[in-house]
Design a protein that fits this description.
This protein has 296 residues and is of the alpha/beta class. It has three domains: 88 residues, Alpha-Beta Plaits; 111 residues, Oxidized Rhodanese, domain 1, CATH 3.40.250.10; 50 residues, no CATH class. It has eight helices and 15 strands. The protein has a five-stranded mixed sheet with strand order 4-1-3-2-5, with helices on both faces. A four-stranded parallel sheet has the order 6-10-9-7. It has a two-stranded antiparallel ribbon with strand order 8-11. Strand 14 and strand 15 form a beta hairpin. Its EC number is 1.14.-.-. Pfam families: Rhodanese, UPF0176_N.
């Protein structure tokens, strides 16, 4: 049973043709604001993607409102919980893509890989004939990933096609298993691989979030924490809040061990940005940190 003061965090997405997103924007934003919801929803002609937080009643109301649209009546979502508001504002943004690959011809509404449930995932990625790929960005992969997973070392999702062209071969990599945070990047990544001639492409349904929610820790093949794009920073097995913080300067996730580095100074620098910091940038960052603390 969820305590009354606990906020529900709902992650949702669906690839579906939405040619009227301009008209949808105002009504979705207005309804979310009426319910006191905070977070971000992206709308594009290819679908909807978002993460929002609010009370149990408010989240249920927003999901019900979205599902009154016949195109979204089967909209799926994943939930986690927090006692600290993870977002400051409510935004509904119009985008060209709900997850940016930069190849508009790649359409998950036309073809997509085979969905694998969290309960089937362990067997699949334990198969030595399966190439397991983490489709997230490098800084996300470094704080946690699945055993045997390859890191494409991308900085943005747009770089994924280049990784595929250089590192993967449909004649060599017969079976490929993809995963990401909530499942959305894998929809496009699997569609792209199929368009490039890969025969067997699988992806984790519901993403890492669903896996961490449903698979007991003693059975889990997940190692580390899962990065989130909200103020919780990361979560662990069972969707418990993680231990990472964000560097105030560069935004890179930092662990407790990073704070012991001589390159770490709270609010000023961390091991990931220290070497690129000029004296002038350090002075500006010191002022920013000072103003932030005064504002708090």
């Amino acid at each position: 049973m969820i305590e009354k003061n606990i906020l529900v965090v709902a992650a949702l997405y669906k690839f579906v043709s939405l040619p009227d997103v301009v008209e949808m924007q105002a009504s979705v934003l207005s309804f979310c604001q009426e319910q006191g919801i905070k977070g971000t929803i992206l709308l594009a002609q290819e679908g909807i993607n978002g993460t929002i937080a609010g009370s149990r009643q408010a989240i249920d109301a927003v999901l019900a409102f979205l599902r009154t649209d016949p195109r979204l009546e089967d909209l799926e979502h994943k939930e986690s919980y927090t006692d600290t508001p993870p977002f400051e504002k409510m935004k509904v943004r119009l985008k060209r893509e709900i997850v940016t690959l930069g190849l508009p011809e790649v359409d998950p509404n036309e073809k997509v890989g085979t969905y694998i449930s969290p309960q089937q995932w362990n067997d699949l990625i334990s198969d030595p004939e399966v190439t397991v790929i983490d489709t997230r960005n490098d800084y996300e992969v470094k704080i946690g990933t699945f055993k045997r997973a390859e890191n494409p070392q991308t900085q943005i999702f747009r770089e994924f096609p280049e990784y595929v062209s250089k590192q993967l071969d449909p004649n060599k990599h017969k079976k490929v298993a993809l995963f990401c945070t909530g499942g959305i990047r894998c929809e496009k990544a699997s569609s792209y691989l199929l368009s490039q001639g890969f025969a067997e492409v699988y992806h984790l349904k519901g993403g890492i979030l669903k896996y961490l929610e449903e698979i007991p820790s003693e059975q889990s093949l997940w190692e580390g924490e899962c990065f989130l794009f909200d103020d919780r920073i990361a979560i662990r097995q069972g969707l418990e809040e993680g231990t990472y913080e964000l560097c105030f300067c560069c935004g890179h996730p930092i662990a407790e061990d990073d704070k012991t580095s001589p390159k770490y100074e709270q609010g000023i620098s961390c091991p990931y940005c220290f070497d690129n910091m000029t004296d002038e940038k350090r002075r500006r960052q010191q002022q920013k940190w000072k103003h932030y603390r005064l504002g708090k």
